[in-house]
C-alpha cells in the first residue's frame, strides 16, 4: 500500500474545497509537492511540503473543528464566490473563517430559495453531494398548470431528460387548488435544475421553488430568509453519519455550555439578517 494520503483528500480536509474541486486544481497545476507539480494519484505524508496556490498546507490530521452552517437562501442570490454582474452571492452574509473557507454543499439557482448548507470540511461536503451517498433533497414547488395522477406517476417512474433519466422519489400534494398548486417533491441527486426540468417536461410551469430539507436537516421556523445559523455539535455528528463518515468526537455540552452556545449562535444569526 502506498504511504500517505491522496493529495485531494488532504486539501479537502484542510477546508480548501471539495475533493472534486481539489482534483481540478491538481490538473490545473495549482498544487505542488516538494516544489514539483502534483499529479492525480499522488500521495503525501507529514514529511512532504504540500502547497496550494503557493501557500503551505499541513498534511497531518490536525485541522479546525468541523463546522456546518444552515443558510435560508433568498431568491436573487447566486452560489458563486463573486459575480461579474455585481449580484449578491450567498457568501456575502457568512462569517469569516480564520482558516480554510466555507464550501457550499450543492447549489441552488438564482431563482430558487431555501436550505443551503456550508461546511469548512471538504470531505464532508464531497460525501454529502456524491450520488453514492443517496441523500434525499426535498423541495416545495408551486406549479402553474394541470397536474393529475398520471403525471405524478410518470414523474415517479422516470422521465428522460437531456442528461439521462431522472425521477422524483416522492410527490405529495400541498396547498392550493386548480391550476396554481403547491407540491412537496423529493430527488436523490443534485443535477442542475433537476426539479424544474422534471416538472417542465410535463408541460407545466414552475413559478416558485424552495428547498426545505437536505437529508435529515430541515429549515427551522425561526430562521428567516437571508439568515443563517450554525448547527449544534449533535446535529453535525448526525449529518456526518448521514453522509457515511466518522463524526467528530464531541463531548456532550453541559447545560450552561449549551446555553452559551445557543446565545452565540443567535448572535451570529442576527448578523445575517436583512437590513
Q: What is the β-strand count?
A: 17
The poorly predicted ranges are 271-275
In CATH terms, what is the fold-level topology of the largest domain?
Pseudouridine synthase
Judging from the principal axes of the Cα atoms, what is the shape? Answer: elongated
* String of helices and strands: EHHEEEEEEEEHEHEEEEHEEEHH
Helix content estimate? 10-25%
Features:
nine-stranded mixed β-sheet, 3 domains, Structural Genomics Hypothetical 15.5 Kd Protein In mrcA-pckA Intergenic Region, Chain A, four-stranded antiparallel β-sheet, Pseudouridine synthase, elongated
SSE map:
Blueprint: E1 5-6, H1 7-13, H2 19-27, E2 31-33, E3 36-37, E4 43-44, E5 50-52, E6 55-57, E7 68-73, E8 103-105, E9 113-119, H3 122-129, E10 137-144, H4 149-157, E11 159-161, E12 164-166, E13 170-177, E14 180-187, H5 194-200, E15 205-214, E16 217-218, E17 228-230, H6 233-243, H7 255-271
Parallel strand pairs: 9-15
Antiparallel strand pairs: 1-4, 2-3, 2-5, 5-6, 7-9, 7-17, 8-9, 10-14, 10-15, 11-12, 13-14, 15-16
Helix pairs in contact: 1-2, 1-3
